[in-house]
Structure formats: structure tokens, C-alpha cells
Amino acid sequence: MNAMICQCCGLSFSPKARGTNRDQSKSGDYCLDCFKDGEFRDHMSIQEMEKKLLEMAKHHDGLCMEEAEAAIKNLPDLKRWKMTHIL
Ligand SMILES: [Zn+2]
């Protein structure tokens, strides 16, 4: 099974790390870092998400700079951020 890509942070996550919906079912779109109990854990903008990914890479917090840059490139296509492009 392919790794899923979180539709918020752009990082891949394992089925175990899926976020949870309000009814405690598992989200197919978001990782647990981003989405819990039917709500996003951070109310951040896409720019803030970019910053967060770069910070994580800088501190070697689970991803390297290449992965962070690849994720950042994908952000505008993700479900969470598409809406901000319509506005
Ligand atoms: Zn995520």
C-alpha cells in the first residue's frame, strides 16, 4: 500500500498516523499531527505551514530539506490550501 500524503502538511504518513474525525473514525486525508477530532490542530496559513516544514527540516525533525521542499511545492494542490487560492 502506498504511503498517504497528508492534505494539510504535504508529508507522507502511515495508516497508524491518520488523523481522527469528530466521530473518532480515521481520516483518509490528514495526518494526526494536523487533524484531530475533526479539527485542524493549527490554525495556520499556507505561509506558516511552509515555515513550519522548513523549521522541521532544519532541526532534522523527521524530514530532510529535500523532503520539506518537495512538500512545500505540493502545498497549493492540497485540499486544505486549495480554498485559500479561490479567495
Ligand atoms: Zn499533516
Structural description of this entry:
The chain has helices spanning 46-58, 65-74, 79-86; strands at residues 4-5, 12-13, 18-20, 26-31, 35-36, 39-40. The chain has one domain (4-86). It is α+β, with helices and mostly antiparallel strands and 87 residues long. It binds zinc ion (ZN). The site of zinc ion has 8 residues, from strand 4.
Globally, the shape reads globular
Q: What is the overall number of helices? A: 3
| Number of structural units classed as domains | 1
Q: What's the main sheet like?
A: 2 strands, antiparallel
Give the mean pLDDT.
91
Question: What order do the helices and strands follow?
Answer: EEEEEEHHH
| Strand arrangement in the largest pleated sheet | 1-2
* Unreliable spans: none
Alpha-carbon distance between the two ends: 35 Å
- Indicate the proportion of strand residues: 15-25%
Radius of gyration: 13 Å
How helical, in percent, are the residues? 25-40%
